Automatic annotation (TrEMBL):
InterPro entries from the UniProt entry: DUF222 (IPR003870), HNH (IPR002711), HNH_nuc (IPR003615)
Domain (HNH nuclease): residue spans on this chain: 305-357
SMART domains linked: HNHc
Organism expressing this protein natively: Petropleomorpha daqingensis
Protein name: HNH nuclease domain-containing protein
Lineage: Bacteria, Bacillati, Actinomycetota, Actinomycetes, Geodermatophilales
Domain of life: Bacteria
Length: 401
């Protein structure tokens, strides 16, 4: 329906349509989880050079890492929970509710439920029927109560099983964090943050505590990178990478979006100049009138200078559908060294470890004259990440309302 059509509806009609759309979304989520599960069991994603269903969903479906993982988790859990899958497919359960119930398919819960004379499927069915007409918060509270009763006298949990940190990057390069730490792990992090927070309390400071803690986290990273104590990445010390043209760096009038960061963020020229005040500047002349880095046949391995140039150009793994950062990647000879390929920028490409292996086992990559990378399967067909695929054998989903 168009916006004008929606404005023509009454309030109750709009709410009825909203309910119908939520139910339809639940049904679609159920169908997607089931389809991904079957595709994963048949290793269909390997045809596009991807190791997992989640990596395919990120690269080809353009989903975030948390969203892709959630779909895969749901598909695997629903296979064990027929009552939950039935209600989800009927539109009565949301994907978030399924995610909460799916926790009980973890390996530690089955024996504890069996000791009480039940099964995981039984507990999940009770939770699903409870969730079908209750707020999401009520389900999470009940699920936690069930887990507490099942684990009253159990062994001390491994704290690493509870920890997670998700970083979601937004269009402007900023990020949002979501995570969970066990009590001891949280104490360590809070102690370190508090030390940095208290060390930077200027007179008249009117920042909120949350703002102070955000600044403390960045200062913690600053100190770690400056000390050089962080683990090496591909034999290099981790560092902040900023790519900016010499014109933008010198032109103080240049506004936002002038410089690219190593992990995909975009900042203004002013921010790039701030970084350049205390940085190692490297000049790259790449183009028709610039210097092309070329080591010919005299050296097989890429030098640090050549690697930096390849990273500057490619920015991430060039295999179709892969978003692995430069720190995960090798410099690959497009034409293999053994077959006469030169160690040069033109003959180099960034590939993560998995896809570097793939191109040595049948897959191929090529760079066209416009500078775009293309990936081909062993049978010669190209892997396309933006190609729409019709749903064969299924009736087109009707528009709710």
């Amino acid at each position: 329906m168009s916006s004008d059509d929606l404005h023509a509806l009454s309030g109750p009609e709009l709410l009825d349509r909203t309910r119908a759309l939520v139910a339809e979304r639940n049904r679609i989520d159920a169908a997607l989880a089931r389809t991904v599960r079957v595709a994963d069991s048949r290793r269909a994603f390997a045809a596009d050079g991807q190791k997992t269903a989640a990596s395919w969903l990120r690269g080809h479906g353009r989903l975030s890492e948390p969203a892709a993982s959630k779909i895969v988790r749901a598909g695997r859990a629903l296979e064990q929970l027929p009552a939950v899958e039935e209600l989800h497919a009927a539109g009565a359960l949301t994907a978030d509710q399924v995610d909460v119930i799916a926790q009980f398919t973890g390996p530690k819960w089955a024996p504890r439920i069996a000791a009480q004379g039940g099964t995981v499927a039984d507990v999940a069915e009770v939770l699903a029927r409870f969730a079908a007409d209750r707020p999401h918060e009520d389900l999470t509270r009940l699920a936690h109560q069930v887990q507490q009763r099942l684990d009253q006298d159990g062994p001390e949990p491994d704290p690493t099983e509870e920890r997670f940190l998700t970083i979601v990057r937004h269009a402007d390069g900023s990020v949002t964090f979501r995570g969970h730490l066990d009590a001891l792990g949280a104490e360590k992090v809070q102690a370190a943050l508090e030390a940095h927070r208290q060390a930077d309390r200027p007179a008249g400071d009117d920042r909120t505590v949350s703002q102070q803690q955000g600044d403390a986290l960045v200062q913690w990273a600053d100190n770690t990178l400056a000390a050089g104590t962080a683990p090496l990445l591909r034999r290099n010390k981790p560092q902040v990478a900023v790519k900016v043209s010499s014109e933008d760096l010198a032109d103080e009038a240049t506004g936002r979006g002038a410089a690219d960061l190593g992990f995909g963020g975009v900042v203004s020229a002013a921010t790039a100049r701030q970084v350049a005040c205390d940085a190692e500047l490297r000049r790259y002349l790449i183009g028709p009138d610039g210097e092309l880095l070329d080591l010919g046949r005299s050296q097989r391995l890429a030098t640090p200078a050549l690697r930096r140039a390849v990273e500057h150009r490619d920015e991430r793994c060039v295999f179709a559908g892969c978003d692995a950062p430069t720190s995960w990647c090798d410099v690959h000879h497009v034409v293999h060294w053994l077959f006469g390929g030169q160690t040069s920028l033109e003959n180099s490409a960034l590939l993560c470890e998995r896809h570097h292996t793939q191109v040595h086992h049948g897959f191929t990559i090529e760079r066209d004259t416009a500078g775009r990378w293309h990936t081909y399967r062993p049978d010669g067909t190209e892997i396309l990440t933006l190609r729409p695929t019709p749903i064969d054998g299924e009736q087109e989903l009707a528009h709710a309302g």
